[in-house]
Amino acid sequence: MIKASKTQSSYLTAGVLLFFLLIFWLTLAPAEVGGPLTYVIVNGNSMEPGFILGDLVLVREDSGYGVGDAVVYYDPDIQQYVFHRIVGLELDRFIMQGDHNSWLDSYHPARNEIVGKLWVHIPKLGRVIKWARTPINTAVIVGLFGVLLMMDMFKKAPQSQGKGGSPSIHPGERSQLFLVGLGVLTILFLALGIYSFTRPLDLPAENISYQQTGEYYYSATGTPGVYDTDVVRSGEPIFPRLTCFLNIGYTYAIPGANLQGIAGSYKMYARILDAQSGWQRTIPLTPDTAFSGASYFNMATLDLCQVEALVNLVESETGLKQIAYTLEIVTQASFVAGANGSPVQDSFSQTLVFTYDKVHFYLSAADSQSDPLFLSKPGVVGSLSSRVNTVSLFGLTLPVWGLRFFSVLGFVIFGLGLAFAAVSLFQDASQSEEALNRLKYGALLVNIHEQSLEPSASVIDVSTMDDLARLAERNGTMILHMPRGFLHFYFVQSGGVTYRYFISMGRKGVAADEAAAAEIPASMGTVNKPNRVKEADVEMPEEMPILIRNRLIYTYPPQKEIPDLDESEEKWDFQQVRTWTPSNPPEYVFDASEAFDLSRQDATLLHKVKI
C-alpha cells in the first residue's frame, strides 16, 4: 500500500474514531457531563460475594425498577450513595438491603431518588481508577502522555514542512481533508439520527403521589381533683365511675393539589373484643356519610357505661373471665378522584385503641406506631398522560423530536455536500491526469524547481504513476513534482537512480511529446538506456535538431498552421540530426543545452509517440 493510501487510511481511521467517540459519548459518558451512566466504585462488603471492594459498577437510569434489581440511590441520612438491592416495595418507596447484610436499610428511597440500575460490572477496575485519581499518580500519567505526544510531534514535523521549513498542505491533501471532514460529519449525524430514532418521542408522565391523614381527638367531663382540669383531654385515661360519655372527634384530610374532584364516604364504629378468645361486639357510632372535598370532620359519642355493662353481661352469661379487654374506635373512609385525567380510587382506615381493665379505659399504642392518635398513609397513581421525552447531550437537554430533526437535517446537508464534492473531484480527476495524481498522491508530492534535483547516474521511466508511488513508499521518500509549462515530471530518487514518470497537458486534454520527455535537467546526468514509452496524438510543428560543438539546437521553420496528421500518414521522425551551415540559417532557435547533456557519445535522445 502506498503512502498516499496510508494517508487516506489515516483520515478514514480518524473518521471512524470520531464515530466511535460519539457512540461512546451517547452510551458511556458520565452523568455529570450529560451522559447516561453513573460510575460507582464499590466501597465495603455489603454486596459480597457478587461485588467486592474495588469493583467498578456502571449504572444507568431505567424507566422501571423492581424487586431483585441492584440499584444505586442517595441516602440523605448518611449523605452518601448506596449500592444495594431492592427486596420489596411499599407504595412508591423501595425497601433496600445489601446482599451480605441480614438487616434492611433504614431509608426507603423513592423512584426519583434512585440514580440507576446495574448495567455493567467490571471486577477490580475501580482499584485502578482510585490509583490513577491520586494526585501524584495523575501527574505522572499526564507527564508521560505529554512526553509521548511531543516525541510524536517532533518525529512528524520534518515530514510536514515544505520549502523554507514552513508547514504546507498540498491541494490533494486539502481535497482529502475536505472529503474526510464531510464524511465524518455525515457519519456523526447518521449516528445521532440512529440514536434519536431509537428513543421514544414521549414517555409516560411521572406517577402522582398523594397523602391521606387522619387524627383522633377525645374528651370527657372530668372530676375536679382527679384531673388537672374539669375536662378529660386526649391521651388521659377515662374512669366509667366518674363519667360515662366519651366524645370522639376525627379529622380526615388529603393535603396537596395533586387530586381533583375528591368525593367519598366514611363511617365510624366502636368494637369491644377479647383478643385471646376472639369474642367481639360492634357498636355503631356514625353511619355511612358522604363527603366531598379534600377533608372532613366527624364527631361521635360513646357510652362507656354501656361498654362496661356489655362486658359484665358476657362474663355472667358465658363464664368468661379476663383481666383486660380491648376497645377499638374504627373510622373507615373511601374516595374517588382524578389526577391529570387518571382516575383514582382509594380507601383509608384508622383505629384508636383503648385497653379496658374493668376500672378505667386507657390509651394503648402499638410498638410500631409513634402517635396512636395520628395516622398518615401515602398513595400513588400512575398517569395516563405522557410527557415529551428528552435526552442530555453535551450538557444540553433536548427533546427527542428536536434531536431527530437536527440529525436528519445535518445528515441531508453534509451527505449532499459529500456527494457533490465527490462527484466534482471525480469529474476533475477523470478529465486531467495531473489532477488525479494531485488527488491521489497529494500527501506524497513535493513541488520543486529544476535546480533542486540531485545528479543521478541513470534515469528509469516507469509505466504508471502507481509504480512510482510504490517505489517512493519502498524507499521511504517523497515524489518530486516539477511542472514545466504543459509538462509535469514526477521523480523518485534513490541510490543514485532517478525513477521518472511524466505527463503532458495539451490543448486536447492529455497529450505528450517524446522530445519533451528528454528534457531531463543537466544536473541529473545522462540517460543509460531508459525504457521506451508511448504517447498520445502529437500536435507539434516540424522540428529539426542541429548539433553544434556538442550543443543541441532546435530550429522551428515558420508555419501559419500546424497540419493534422492522418492516421494513414507516417509519423514524423524527430531523430534526424544535421549539421548547421550558413546557407541554411534557422528561422527560430531554442537553446536547450541546459535541459540536455549529450556530451557523452553513448547518450540517446528519445522520442515518444503513442499509437
Task: Walk me through what this model shows.
The chain is an alpha+beta fold and 611 residues long. The model is unreliable at 1-5, 153-168, 507-520, 522-542 and 565-611 (pLDDT under 50). The protein folds into 4 domains: 1-19 and 169-203 and 390-443; 36-133, Ribbon (Umud Fragment, subunit A); 208-384; 444-591, no CATH class. It has helices at 3-28, 125-132, 135-156, 171-197, 304-318, 400-431, 433-441, 465-475, 514-517; strands at 37-41, 56-60, 70-75, 80-90, 93-97, 114-122, 202-204, 208-221, 231-232, 245-253, 260-273, 280-292, 295-303, 325-339, 342-356, 361-363, 374-381, 386-388, 390-393, 396-399, 445-447, 458-461, 479-484, 487-494, 497-504, 544-548, 551-555, 589-591. It is built from 9 helices and 28 strands. The longest helix has 32 residues, at 400-431. A hairpin with a 2-residue loop joins β14 and β15.
> What is the helix fraction of residues, given as a range?
25-40%
Q: What overall geometry do the principal axes of the alpha carbons give? A: elongated
Spatial order of the strands forming the largest sheet: 1-2-6-3-4-5
Largest sheet: 6 strands, antiparallel
Number of strands: 28
How much of the sequence lies in strands comes to 25-35%
The total domain count is: 4
Key features of this structure:
Umud Fragment, subunit A; 4 domains; 28 strands; alpha+beta; 611 residues; 25% helix; five-stranded antiparallel beta sheet; six-stranded antiparallel beta sheet; disordered C terminus; disordered N terminus
